[in-house]
């Protein structure tokens, strides 16, 4: 790879890191070609993009981004074979890894995950990442919580209103 190709690859990675607030670094080495193709297919179905990268290029791309994004702790994960899984949903790559490993064992291994400026290091974090809620799930939970008191109030008013109407009807019938 010549200097121009490296510069192009770094710029491409830099752009992907900037545009994705969720990405995972995993080790998918020792997987057969068939297994890698199956993993890529699973990623595609779940809206996850998998890219095998050279660690030095990924590190250089991350170093060019603003320090406030807190990418520095990820540099330790950029050793050995690395694949980066980009996603628009924070827990999607974790679910893909977990589902893939149900059949075939211990690979891919999670090295690190970057979730909206939070960093999770090590494969032992996989279960916690699977349980993370997506932004849409959190918004749905908040909406449900906000609707609940209003629904209770309306239900109470409706129930009391029908009791009041029944009592008035009974009084009207007695007078007649």
UniProtKB/TrEMBL annotation:
<comment type="function">
    <text>Forms part of the ribosomal stalk, playing a central role in the interaction of the ribosome with GTP-bound translation factors.</text>
</comment>
<keyword id="KW-0694">RNA-binding</keyword>
<keyword id="KW-0689">Ribosomal protein</keyword>
<keyword id="KW-0699">rRNA-binding</keyword>
<dbReference type="GO" id="GO:0070180">
    <property type="term" value="F:large ribosomal subunit rRNA binding"/>
</dbReference>
<dbReference type="GO" id="GO:1990904">
    <property type="term" value="C:ribonucleoprotein complex"/>
</dbReference>
<dbReference type="InterPro" id="IPR022973">
    <property type="entry name" value="Ribosomal_uL10_bac"/>
</dbReference>
<dbReference type="Pfam" id="PF00466">
    <property type="entry name" value="Ribosomal_L10"/>
</dbReference>
<comment type="similarity">
    <text>Belongs to the universal ribosomal protein uL10 family.</text>
</comment>
<dbReference type="InterPro" id="IPR043141">
    <property type="entry name" value="Ribosomal_uL10-like_sf"/>
</dbReference>
<dbReference type="GO" id="GO:0005840">
    <property type="term" value="C:ribosome"/>
</dbReference>
<keyword id="KW-0687">Ribonucleoprotein</keyword>
<protein>
    <recommendedName>
        <fullName>Large ribosomal subunit protein uL10</fullName>
    </recommendedName>
</protein>
<dbReference type="InterPro" id="IPR047865">
    <property type="entry name" value="Ribosomal_uL10_bac_type"/>
</dbReference>
<dbReference type="GO" id="GO:0006412">
    <property type="term" value="P:translation"/>
</dbReference>
<comment type="subunit">
    <text>Part of the ribosomal stalk of the 50S ribosomal subunit. The N-terminus interacts with L11 and the large rRNA to form the base of the stalk. The C-terminus forms an elongated spine to which L12 dimers bind in a sequential fashion forming a multimeric L10(L12)X complex.</text>
</comment>
<dbReference type="InterPro" id="IPR001790">
    <property type="entry name" value="Ribosomal_uL10"/>
</dbReference>
């Amino acid at each position: 790879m010549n200097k121009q190709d490296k510069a192009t690859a770094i710029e491409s990675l830099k752009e992907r890191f900037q545009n994705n607030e969720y990405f995972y670094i995993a080790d998918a080495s020792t997987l057969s070609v068939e297994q890698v193709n199956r993993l890529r297919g699973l990623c595609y179905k779940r809206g996850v993009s998998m890219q095998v990268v050279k660690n030095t290029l990924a590190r250089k791309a991350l170093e060019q981004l603003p320090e406030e994004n807190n990418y520095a702790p990820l540099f330790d994960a950029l050793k050995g074979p690395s694949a980066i899984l980009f996603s628009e949903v924070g827990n999607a790559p974790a679910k893909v890894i977990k589902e893939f490993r149900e059949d075939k064992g211990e690979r891919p291994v999670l090295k690190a995950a970057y979730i909206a400026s939070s960093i999770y290091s090590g494969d032992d974090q996989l279960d916690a990442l699977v349980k993370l809620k997506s932004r849409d799930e959190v918004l749905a939970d908040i909406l449900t919580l906000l609707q609940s008191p209003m629904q209770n109030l309306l239900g109470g008013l409706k129930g009391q209103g029908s009791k009041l109407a029944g009592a008035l009807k009974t009084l009207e019938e007695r007078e007649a």
